[in-house]
Design the sequence.
C-alpha cells in the first residue's frame, strides 16, 4: 500500500502527468461540449463514440490524401456531421429510438472505418507542437496548457463559445426549452424536432473535430480501437457535470487525469497491474457519477421523443 | 405523454399500431405496404453495402455469393450458423425482457464475458460427473451475468445513475477484469504446457466430459444447447403473451405510474428484469464456452467477440418478439458465419459488420414510418375531441 | 343583433360568421357568430362542453372549422395555426400553462420570439409590463418556484409582450383564489380600456361574467342562445339562458357562480335527503370506508404537499373536496393511488391501516381511483382497451400466474357493453379512444373490483356535455350502491351538485367542513381563499 501512495506521489509531481491529462481531457471535452448541447435539447446521444471514431478515421484519411492537418480536421468535422445527420434524422424525424440508432451507428462506423482502414491504410502523423511562449514556463502545468500539438488549442475557444450559444442566444434558449418541456416549446411556436436535430449536428461537429484531434494531435495514426470507449466517458462527463458547462469540463479534466495516471505510472518506474489501470477510468467514472451526479437534475425530456399530439 | 415511460429500445408498438387499423378490408393492404417497405429498406441496405465494396475495388457479387456459401450453401455451414445463433438468441431473449420492463441494458457484451469467464473457472476447476459440472457452469455463468447487470440496476435504483451509462461502462471493466484473470494462474490462466506458448493468455481447455454434446444432422453439427434455446424462446413467448408477470412487466415499461398504482413495484420488477437479462447474457457466454463454436472450449481475451452487441441488436430489430428474435438471430449468425468465406474474395471481413449495421438501420425505418402514419391518421380523428 | 348599435362606425376586431365544427357525431359549434370589438371585454358564457373552448381554438388556430368565415379587422382570412393567429395579433392565455419550469420568467416570456436576442431588453420589458399592470412578477425568478397564480401572470405577460390587439382568456380563474381573480380582472380592464384591445373571456361562472365583461354571448350545446350587453343582464337571466331552464335550486344557482344571489337565498335545500344526517352525526360510532388522519407528505420537489390532512368518508356518502387548484389535490389523489408515501399520519380503509406509497396497496385495500390525469396514472396508452380494463386486477382472470387472452377479451367485451364504451373492440389501442370513452374505461375498471371507496379527481374535466352527465349519474349510482366517494374537484358547481358533505382543502390541509344543507357560500368562498376567520368560524359552528 505504501508503494501505491509513493507511486501516486511520483505521478502528481510529474509534469508529464499533466500534459497527458490535458490531452485526454481535451479529447473528452471536444465530445462532451457537443454532447452537452445535444442532451440539453433532449437527446442522449450514444453515437458520440461513432462520431469520434468517424472523425478520427476521416482525419487520418484527409491527412493521407493531402498531407495537411487542417484538411484532415476539416474531413473529420464533415464525417462527424454526417454521422450526426443519420442520428438526427432517424431519431428526430422518423422517431426511431435514439439508443437503437446510436448503437447501430457505432457498429456501422466501426465497421466502415476498420474496413476502409485495411483497404486504404492511410498514412498520417501528429501535428507539430506549438509552444506558446511565456505562459508555457509556468511550473508543472505550463506545458500541459500551452505546449501541446496545435489542434488541442481548438478546444479552448469552444468552451466559452458553447456556453455562449446555450445561454446567450435565442437558439440556446430554444434548445434548453425543448429539452425540458417540448410541449410548452411547441405551443410557443418552436419546431422541437428541428432544434433537436440541430443540436445533434453540433455534437457531430465538435466530436468529429475531437476525433480528428485524437488522430492528428494525440496519436498520429489511426487504429480500429483508437477511441476505445472515450465517447462513453464523455457522456459520463456530461452526466457528472450535471449538464452545466463548468461541471462538464470539470468531469473531462477529472476523467482525463485518471486516464493519464494510467500512462504515467509505468514511465515513472512503478509497476501496477495494467488491467486495473485500463479499467480505472471506467470504474472511477461509475463511482463518481454514483456519488455526485444523483443530486443534479437531468433535462426533463432527456431521451424522450417528441411527437405532436402525443400528450 | 407526460408521465408515460420513455419508449424503449425494445418496443412492440408496431403490433399495437397495426391492431389500430380498425377497418378490416384495409388491413390486408396495410400489411402489404408494410411488407413492401421492409423489403425495400433491406434492398437499399444491400445496395449501399454493394457500393462500398465496389468503391474499394471488390466485387459485390463475389461478396454476397461468399456470404451465402459461408452461411448456408457450403457443406456443414448450417451447423456453424446455428452454433453462432444460439448465444445471439439467448442474449436477445434477455434483452427483450428488460426492454419490456422499460429498463435499458446495453452491456450484454460485458455480461457475456463475465458469464463465460466464471463458467470457465467452474468448468476447469470443479471435479465431478460431467453433466453435473455442465449444469453448474451454466448456472454460475448465469449468476455472473446477473451480478454484472445487477450492479447497474442497483446503482439505478439506489442513486438514479442512468443504466444506459453504467451497463455500457461495465463492458470495459468486465473485459479488463477477465483479462486480468487470464494473467494469473490461480484464476484462469492455463498452466504452461506445450500447447500454450508463454505469451498466450488462454484458459485451460474444458475436458471432454464437461463439453456440451453436439448433434449431427447431415454433416451439420451444433451443440445440444440449441434445443434449450428453442425452449427458452417458447417460454418467453408464453411469458409475454399469457403470464401475469409479463403483463405487469409491460405495464411497468409503458407507464410506471399506472403500474405502481396497480401494484407493480418499479424496483422489484425492474431489478428482476435486469437480473434476468444479465443472467441470459451470462448463460449465453457459458454456452459459447461449453458449446465449442467459440474459442475451442477455452476462455480467451475478447472471448465475447461482439456476440453481446449483436444479440442486443437482434432484440431491437426483432422488436422483442421471441419468434422474430429466432429468425433475426439466425440471419445475423449467417452473416457472421458467411464472413469466414470472404478471405477468398479479397474483401476484408469487416464488411460483414457494415452490412449488419446497415441492415439494422434500414429495419428501423419501416416501423417508424408506419407509426408516424398511424399517428397522423389517429390524430386527425381524435385531435381536440376533448 | 348586438352588431347594430356600433357596427356602422367601427370595424370589429374579429368577426366570426357561421362557424361550425363537429367531432364525430357531436357538433361542438353549430353556425356560431361572434363579434369582438376593441375596447370591450366580451364574455363567452356556457356550461362545460357548450362549445366555447372549441370556438376559441378556432380563433387561435388550434382547430380548423368545418365551415364559416373569420374576419380580423375587416379582412377575411384563414387561421391555420397559432403562429398565424399571432401574426394577426391574436393571443391566448392558456388554461393549462405552457411554461418551461427551469427557465426564468423573462426567458419564458421571450420563448418563441424571433429577431434579435436581447436579454437585457427582454428583462426590462418584462419588468415594465409587470409594473404597468401591477402584476408584481420578478423577471429573474425561476418559473418552477412560482405559484399557480403568479405563473398565470407570467402567461399574461408572455401574451401582452407581443402587444396583441385581441386577447383570449380561457377559464382564467380555475387556478386562482378569489383575491387573485379580482386582481386579474383589474388587469383585464386596464388592458382593454387604456389600450383599446379586444378581449374574449371564456367562463362558466356567472359572477365573473357579470363583474368583468361589457357584453356577453351565451352558448349552449354548440349554438349561441343569446347575446346581450352585460349592463342589461342579471344573474337569473344569464343562468336561465345558459342552462336552458329556470334555475331555482340553491345548489344549482351557486354552482353557476352566483355567490351573492345564492348566499342571499336562505331557503333550505329541498333536494337534500337523509344521507347528510347519516354522514353528519354518526361519525363517532361507525367505521368510515376511508379515514385519513393527520397525513403529511412531500412532493417530488421536496415541498410539503399535504400538511396534516384529516378526512373521513363513510359508506354511501359523497364527500366533496373543494379548493383552488394547487392546494394539494394532486398529492391527495397520488396518496390514495399508492404513488406518494406519507411522512406521518395514517390511512385506514374500512378500519384497516394501509401503507401509502406501497405499490398496489391502496387498490388491494379497495380504493378505486379516477385520476385527474388519466394518461399519467390511470391507463397505459399503448395497451389495448381490454388490457386497460384489467390493469389493476389481472389476477381475477388468471390461474397459476397465467391468463387466457380470449377470456380477457370476452370479459372486456362485456364491460364495454355495460359501460357503453365506444370503441372498435377490445383489441383497439387505448389511445384510439376519445377522452370520454377513455374515462369510461377507467371507471369500468375501477368499479370492477368491488371497491370500498372511489376517489374521483376532477372526473369531468375536459369531457363533453353528454359525457359529463353520464359520469355524474354514475357517481351517484356508485354512492347509492354503498361505496364511499371522495370527489376532488376545483369546480364548486360539481361539488355542490354531487356532494353530501363539503370539505375545503387549503395548502395541504382541510380547513373547513360543512354538510351541503348548511353551505354558506360566502363563508365557503372565504375558506377557498384560506381565510382564517372563515376557518375558525367553521370550526366553531
Sequence:
Amino acid at each position: 500500500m505504501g508503494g501505491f501512495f509513493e507511486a501516486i506521489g511520483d505521478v502528481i509531481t510529474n509534469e508529464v502527468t499533466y500534459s497527458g491529462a490535458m490531452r485526454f481531457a481535451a479529447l473528452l471535452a471536444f465530445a462532451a461540449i457537443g454532447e452537452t448541447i445535444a442532451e440539453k435539447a433532449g437527446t442522449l446521444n450514444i453515437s458520440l463514440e461513432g462520431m469520434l471514431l468517424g472523425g478520427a478515421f476521416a482525419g487520418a484519411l484527409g491527412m493521407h490524401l493531402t498531407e495537411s492537418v487542417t484538411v484532415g480536421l476539416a474531413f473529420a468535422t464533415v464525417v462527424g456531421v454526417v454521422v450526426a445527420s443519420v442520428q438526427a434524422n432517424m431519431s428526430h424525424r422518423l422517431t426511431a429510438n435514439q439508443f437503437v440508432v446510436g448503437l447501430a451507428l457505432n457498429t456501422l462506423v466501426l465497421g466502415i472505418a476498420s474496413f476502409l482502414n485495411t483497404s486504404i491504410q492511410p498514412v498520417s502523423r501528429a501535428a507539430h507542437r506549438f509552444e506558446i511562449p511565456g505562459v508555457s514556463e509556468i511550473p508543472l502545468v505550463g506545458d500541459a496548457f500551452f505546449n501541446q500539438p496545435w489542434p488541442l488549442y481548438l478546444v479552448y475557444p469552444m468552451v466559452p463559445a458553447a456556453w455562449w450559444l446555450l445561454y446567450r442566444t435565442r437558439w440556446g434558449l430554444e434548445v434548453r426549452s425543448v429539452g425540458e418541456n417540448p410541449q410548452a416549446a411547441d405551443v410557443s411556436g418552436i419546431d422541437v424536432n428541428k432544434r433537436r436535430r440541430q443540436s445533434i449536428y453540433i455534437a457531430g461537429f465538435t466530436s468529429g473535430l475531437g476525433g480528428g484531434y485524437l488522430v492528428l494531435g494525440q496519436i498520429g495514426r489511426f487504429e480500429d480501437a483508437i477511441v476505445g470507449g472515450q465517447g462513453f466517458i464523455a457522456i459520463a462527463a456530461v452526466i457528472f457535470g450535471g449538464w452545466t458547462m463548468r461541471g462538464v469540463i470539470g468531469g473531462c479534466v477529472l476523467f482525463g487525469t485518471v486516464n493519464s495516471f494510467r500512462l504515467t505510472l509505468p514511465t515513472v518506474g512503478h509497476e501496477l497491474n495494467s488491467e486495473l489501470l485500463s479499467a480505472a477510468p471506467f470504474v472511477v467514472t461509475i463511482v463518481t457519477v454514483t456519488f455526485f451526479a444523483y443530486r443534479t437534475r437531468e433535462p426533463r425530456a432527456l431521451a424522450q421523443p417528441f411527437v405532436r399530439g402525443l400528450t | 405523454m407526460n408521465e408515460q415511460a420513455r419508449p424503449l429500445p425494445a418496443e412492440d408498438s408496431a403490433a399495437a399500431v397495426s391492431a389500430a387499423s380498425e377497418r378490416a378490408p384495409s388491413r390486408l393492404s396495410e400489411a402489404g405496404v408494410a411488407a413492401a417497405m421492409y423489403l425495400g429498406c433491406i434492398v437499399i441496405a444491400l445496395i449501399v453495402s454493394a457500393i462500398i465494396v465496389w468503391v474499394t475495388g471488390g466485387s459485390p457479387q463475389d461478396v454476397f455469393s461468399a456470404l451465402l456459401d459461408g452461411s448456408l450453401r457450403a457443406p456443414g455451414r448450417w451447423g456453424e450458423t446455428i452454433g453462432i445463433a444460439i448465444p445471439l438468441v439467448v442474449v436477445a431473449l434477455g434483452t427483450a425482457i428488460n426492454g419490456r420492463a422499460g429498463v435499458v441494458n446495453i452491456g450484454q457484451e460485458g455480461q457475456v464475458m463475465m458469464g463465460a469467464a466464471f463458467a470457465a473457472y467452474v468448468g476447469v476447476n470443479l471435479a465431478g460427473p460431467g453433466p453435473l459440472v455442465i449444469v453448474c457452469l451454466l448456472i454460475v455463468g448465469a449468476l455472473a451475468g446477473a451480478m454484472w447487470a445487477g450492479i447497474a440496476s442497483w446503482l439505478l435504483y439506489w442513486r438514479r445513475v442512468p443504466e444506459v451509462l453504467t451497463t455500457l461502462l461495465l463492458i470495459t471493466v468486465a473485459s479488463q477484469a477477465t483479462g486480468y484473470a487470464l494473467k494469473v494462474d490461480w484464476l484462469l490462466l492455463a498452466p504452461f504446457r506445450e500447447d500454450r506458448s508463454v505469451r498466450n493468455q488462454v484458459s485451460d481447455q474444458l475436458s471432454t466430459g464437461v463439453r456440451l454434446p453436439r448433434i449431427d444432422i447431415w454433416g451439420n453439427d451444433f451443440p445440444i444447447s440449441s434445443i434449450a434455446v428453442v425452449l427458452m424462446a417458447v417460454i418467453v413467448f408464453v411469458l409475454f403473451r399469457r403470464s401475469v408477470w409479463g403483463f405487469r412487466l409491460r405495464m411497468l415499461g409503458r407507464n410506471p405510474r399506472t403500474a405502481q398504482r396497480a401494484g407493480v413495484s418499479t424496483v422489484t420488477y425492474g431489478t428482476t428484469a435486469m437480473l434476468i437479462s444479465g443472467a441470459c447474457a451470462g448463460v449465453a457466454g457459458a454456452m459459447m464456452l461449453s458449446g465449442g463454436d467459440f474459442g475451442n472450449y477455452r476462455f480467451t481475451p475478447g472471448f465475447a467477440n461482439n456476440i453481446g452487441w449483436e444479440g442486443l441488436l437482434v432484440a431491437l430489430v426483432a422488436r422483442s418478439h421471441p419468434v422474430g428474435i429466432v429468425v433475426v438471430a439466425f440471419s445475423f449468425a449467417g452473416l457472421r458465419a458467411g464472413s469466414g468465406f470472404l478471405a477468398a474474395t479479397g474483401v476484408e471481413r469487416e464488411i460483414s459488420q457494415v452490412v449488419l449495421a446497415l441492415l439494422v438501420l434500414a429495419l428501423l425505418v419501416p416501423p417508424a414510418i408506419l407509426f408516424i402514419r398511424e399517428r397522423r391518421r389517429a390524430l386527425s380523428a381524435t385531435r381536440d375531441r376533448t | 343583433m348586438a352588431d347594430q348599435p356600433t357596427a356602422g362606425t367601427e370595424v370589429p376586431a374579429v368577426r366570426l360568421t357561421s362557424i361550425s365544427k363537429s367531432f364525430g357525431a357531436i357538433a361542438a359549434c353549430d353556425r356560431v357568430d361572434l363579434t369582438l370589438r376593441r375596447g370591450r371585454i366580451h364574455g363567452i358564457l356556457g356550461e362545460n362542453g357548450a362549445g366555447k373552448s372549441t370556438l376559441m381554438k378556432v380563433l387561435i388556430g388550434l382547430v380548423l372549422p368545418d365551415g364559416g368565415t373569420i374576419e380580423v379587422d375587416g379582412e377575411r382570412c384563414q387561421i391555420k395555426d397559432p403562429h398565424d393567429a399571432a401574426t394577426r395579433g391574436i393571443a391566448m392565455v392558456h388554461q393549462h400553462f405552457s411554461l418551461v419550469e427551469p427557465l426564468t420568467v423573462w426567458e419564458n416570456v421571450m420563448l418563441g420570439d424571433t429577431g434579435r436576442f436581447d436579454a437585457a431588453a427582454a428583462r426590462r420589458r418584462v419588468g415594465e409590463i409587470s409594473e404597468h399592470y401591477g402584476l408584481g412578477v420578478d423577471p429573474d425568478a425561476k418559473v418552477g418556484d412560482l405559484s399557480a397564480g403568479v405563473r398565470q401572470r407570467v402567461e399574461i405577460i408572455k401574451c401582452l409582450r407581443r402587444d396583441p390587439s385581441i386577447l383570449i382568456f380561457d377559464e382564467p380563474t380555475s387556478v386562482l383564489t378569489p383575491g387573485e381573480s379580482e386582481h386579474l380582472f383589474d388587469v383585464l380592464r386596464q388592458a382593454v380600456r387604456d389600450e383599446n384591445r379586444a378581449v374574449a373571456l371564456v367562463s362558466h361562472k356567472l359572477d365573473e361574467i357579470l363583474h368583468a365583461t361589457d357584453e356577453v354571448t351565451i352558448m349552449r350545446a354548440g349554438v349561441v342562445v343569446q347575446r346581450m350587453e352585460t349592463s342589461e343582464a342579471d344573474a337569473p337571466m344569464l343562468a336561465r339562458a345558459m342552462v336552458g331552464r329556470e334555475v331555482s335550486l340553491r345548489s344549482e344557482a351557486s354552482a353557476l357562480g352566483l355567490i351573492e344571489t345564492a348566499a342571499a337565498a336562505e331557503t333550505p335545500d329541498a333536494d337534500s335527503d337523509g344521507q347528510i344526517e347519516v354522514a353528519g352525526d354518526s361519525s363517532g360510532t361507525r367505521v368510515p370506508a376511508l379515514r385519513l388522519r393527520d397525513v403529511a407528505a412531500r412532493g417530488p420537489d421536496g415541498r410539503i404537499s399535504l400538511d396534516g390532512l384529516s378526512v373521513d368518508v363513510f359508506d354511501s356518502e359523497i364527500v366533496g373536496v373543494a379548493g383552488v387548484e394547487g392546494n394539494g389535490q394532486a398529492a391527495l389523489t397520488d396518496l390514495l393511488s399508492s404513488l406518494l408515501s406519507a411522512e406521518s399520519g395514517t390511512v385506514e380503509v374500512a378500519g384497516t391501516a394501509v401503507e401509502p406509497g406501497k405499490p398496489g396497496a391502496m387498490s388491494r385495500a379497495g380504493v378505486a381511483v379516477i385520476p385527474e390525469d388519466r394518461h399519467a396514472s390511470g391507463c397505459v396508452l399503448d395497451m389495448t382497451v381490454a388490457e386497460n380494463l384489467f390493469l389493476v386486477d389481472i389476477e381475477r382472470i388468471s390461474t397459476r400466474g397465467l391468463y387466457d387472452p380470449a377470456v380477457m377479451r370476452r370479459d372486456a367485451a362485456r364491460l364495454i357493453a355495460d359501460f357503453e364504451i365506444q370503441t372498435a373492440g377490445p383489441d383497439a389501442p387505448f389511445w384510439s379512444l376519445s377522452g370520454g370513452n377513455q374515462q369510461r374505461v377507467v371507471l369500468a375498471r375501477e368499479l370492477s373490483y368491488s371497491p370500498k371507496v372511489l376517489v374521483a379527481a376532477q372526473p369531468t374535466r375536459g369531457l363533453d356535455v353528454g359525457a359529463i352527465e353520464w359520469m355524474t349519474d354514475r357517481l351517484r349510482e356508485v354512492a347509492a350502491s354503498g361505496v364511499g366517494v371522495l370527489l376532488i374537484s376545483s369546480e364548486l358547481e360539481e361539488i355542490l351538485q354531487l356532494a353530501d358533505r363539503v370539505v375545503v382543502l387549503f395548502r395541504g390541509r382541510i380547513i373547513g367542513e360543512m354538510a351541503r344543507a348548511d353551505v354558506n357560500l360566502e363563508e365557503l368562498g372565504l375558506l377557498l381563499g384560506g381565510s382564517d376567520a372563515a376557518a375558525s368560524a367553521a370550526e366553531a359552528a
Summary: The mean pLDDT of chain C is 82. The domain at 275-540 of chain C is CATH 3.40.50.300 (Rossmann fold).
